[in-house]
Amino acid sequence: MNLKTTRTIASYLHIFVAVFQLSYIYTPLHNVPHILSVVQWVSTPALLITGFWLSSGKKFYK
């Protein structure tokens, strides 16, 4: 894959994960105990990795 395709995939994943975390915070989903582990161990690292990739991903390909 080229750089543009990977950045597009990363941006869509970043937006999807951010919407999931916002819906976890602002809806009654925080009452479900299993979703907390998904937020802590899956979506937060995915949000951090994609955010880092979108902010400084071009530096690694030069």
Query: Biggest sheet, in brief?
Result: none
Strand coverage percent: under 5%
Low-confidence stretches are none
The coarse overall form would be elongated
Structural class call reads: mainly alpha
Cα gyration radius (Å): 14 Å
Number of helices: 2
Query: How confident overall, as mean pLDDT?
Result: 88
- H and E order: HH
How many domains? The number is 1
How much helical structure, as a percent, in the residues? over 70%
How many beta-strand elements? 0
Q: What is the distance, rounded to the nearest whole angstrom, between the alpha carbons of the first and last residues?
A: 16 Å
Please describe what this structure looks like.
- The chain has 62 residues and is mostly helical.
- It has one domain.
- It has two helices and no strands.
- It has helices at residues 3-26, 33-61.
- Helix 1 (3-26) packs antiparallel against helix 2 (33-61).
- It is elongated, with a radius of gyration of 14 Å.
- The two termini are 16 Å apart.
- The model has no long low-confidence stretch (mean pLDDT 88).
Could you write a compact summary of the structure shown?
This protein is mainly alpha-helical and 62 residues long. It has one domain (3-57). 85% of the residues lie in helices and 0% in strands.
